[in-house]
Amino acid sequence: MGIVHRATLTPSKQELVATWLPTQTWAEGLVVAEKVAEYRFDDPAGEVGVETILWRTTDGALLQVPLTYRAAPLPAAEEHLVTTAHHSVLGERWVYDGCGDPVWAATLVTAVLTGAEQSPMFFEDGGTRIDIPARMHVRGSGSEASGPPIDAVDSVIHSGVVTTLRAGSTEIELARVVDAPLGDGARLVGRVGDAPDETVLAVVRTA
What we know:
The longest helix is centred in the middle third of the chain and has 13 residues, at 102-114. It is globular and about 45 Å long. The chain has helices at 13-20, 102-114, and strands at 2-3, 9-10, 32-40, 49-57, 62-70, 81-87, 91-97, 121-125, 128-132, 136-140, 155-159, 162-167, 170-175, 186-192, 199-206. It has one domain (2-206). The chain is mainly beta and 207 residues long. The protein is built from 2 helices and 15 strands. Residues 20-101 form the Maltokinase N-terminal cap domain. Keywords: ATP-binding, Kinase, Nucleotide-binding, Transferase. It holds the Pfam family Mak_N_cap. It comes from Nocardioides renjunii.
């Protein structure tokens, strides 16, 4: 469960993603028009913010952009840095493409393999907790007790609009454009708003 700060991020999430997308091979020609939904998982250590945002593009595609927010640079991850930003409550944040961040990978794999759902979010107002209704519901397909430990991301490969990352004996396929075909494996599925059908967002395979 995570608290959402009533704060301003500069640049805004849409601004930072819009600036970063043209540098990504999988996003060629795609331009962000609006934010559609998001889902979050909790970092067990409580240090890293983990969020995946779905964006509608100007041509109607639905992009899936995982981001992590850190209070200090992630060592040896310069190629995955989206930007630095100023959070009006927490101060300077280093914003990373989640596919290059082991905390994002670990939280996703754990959710997929244990059958977990996204973390509920809330903010505090005068000491009262106010729950934030989810705009997107996700769940993992597995039933294991836990996921494997992930300390580092070994490789990140883009093939069309699918990104594959490897971390030790674990492999993750992420649909950068929602509904892109993915391979077999345990799955993270999601439903946006009141949409009747779930879609496969990511696949996890372990050796």
